[in-house]
Amino acid sequence: MHKEKQLAIIGGGPGGLTLARVLASRGLPSTVFELDAHELARPQGGSLDLHADSGQLALGLAGLTAQFQALARYDDQYDAIYDHLGTLHFENNEAAAGDRPEIDRTQLRSLLLHSLPEGTVRWGSKIACVERTTDGRYRVSSEQGSLGEFDLVVGADGAWSKVRPLVSSEKPRYSGVTFIELSIDDADTKHPDVAKLVPCGKISAVGQGQGLVAQRSSGGHIRVYYMFRVPADWVATGAIDLSSPAAARRDLKAQLRGWAPQLLSFIDECNDQIVPRPIVMLPVGHRWAHRPGVTLLGDAAHVMSPFSGEGVNMAMLDGAELALALAGDPDWSRAVMSYEAQMFERASLAAAGAEQGLDFVSEGALSHLLDHFRAIRTSEPT
């Protein structure tokens, strides 16, 4: 019966691709509709730490542990924490012994994509709507027309999901925090002084109600986020002039008066892609009444602030657990209900932690951040 059913996954990120891979490994085909025109159509972002009990577990269920370990950067589990004056307060000197190795987002996506049967992903699919048909199935359509009818549609299409309105009226709200994202290319060769600040892994700094994270990716790339607790229209009303890179650098440094020069050097050395990222979140405990034929995973189900550290890990675990439920029960509605019940509980706990993590960008954040990293990296109680 399984092979006669049609399953659509909207979104080709790590969660949706994990779902497709675990399904395929158990003999269940699926179709992934992805907006991108091809695998390398756009940058996928920086580095991810995959957790043993979620992201790595999902890759194990997908049969991809060996491939992951060949790419994983165990030495990049390093963390260091500074205050905004440049004083070092914490350093993890046993990084390689941890169980949260790093992998580039692009590498992870490629690993999952190339594990799928040919034709699973339909590239360049801009979904306009998903609607229920008279026989209880769901029609997935682009602006050009129908892309097919399916017995189950899974929304894995991120914070602004086109599938979510079928089960929930909730929309993400602004968290009160905005990131300004910068990138530094070929740091070891072209920007050696900045490279020394982030020898591996990542560094964090907090002070004056502001924050910084600078993180290594492979190939000498460093991705940097300056963080501000500001109104939603902060950038739009002129706090950071994005009309030119020079203006944006000037304004960004002006917002960070009092910060140590070395912690501002990322601004001077970054490339010209300076991107504001308002952080949004769904309500803690977001859930919906089960609706046969449709469900959600990852950010579509429970987008939260990145301070939880759980985002991609939860999305991949969602995908793996949903696949196992579908493979183990010919009654797909019952299988989805079982998955949703477990996912709701897990996501609620993570979202509560993510909301507390917004204190990273607040006065007095340094002590909270130190407690957090000590608990994660050295197993000390918080």
Account of the protein in words:
The chain has helices spanning 14-25, 55-61, 65-71, 105-113, 187-190, 192-197, 245-255, 261-269, 299-302, 311-328, 332-357, 365-378; strands at 7-10, 31-33, 47-49, 79-83, 88-91, 102-104, 121-122, 127-132, 138-142, 145-150, 152-155, 173-184, 202-207, 210-216, 222-229, 275-281, 294-296. By secondary structure, the chain is α/β, with parallel strands linked by helices. It folds into two domains: 2-75 and 99-172 and 282-359, FAD/NAD(P)-binding domain (3-Layer(bba) Sandwich), CATH 3.50.50; 174-280, 2-Layer Sandwich (D-Amino Acid Oxidase, Chain A, domain 2), CATH 3.30.9. The strands form four sheets. A seven-stranded mixed sheet has the order 5-4-13-14-15-12-16, with helices on both faces. Strands 7-2-1-11-17 form a five-stranded parallel sheet. A three-stranded antiparallel sheet has the order 8-9-10, with no helix packed on it. Helix 1 (14-25) packs parallel to helix 10 and helix 2 packs parallel to helix 10. The longest helix is centred in the last third of the chain and has 26 residues, at 332-357. Mean pLDDT is 91; it is low at 378-382.
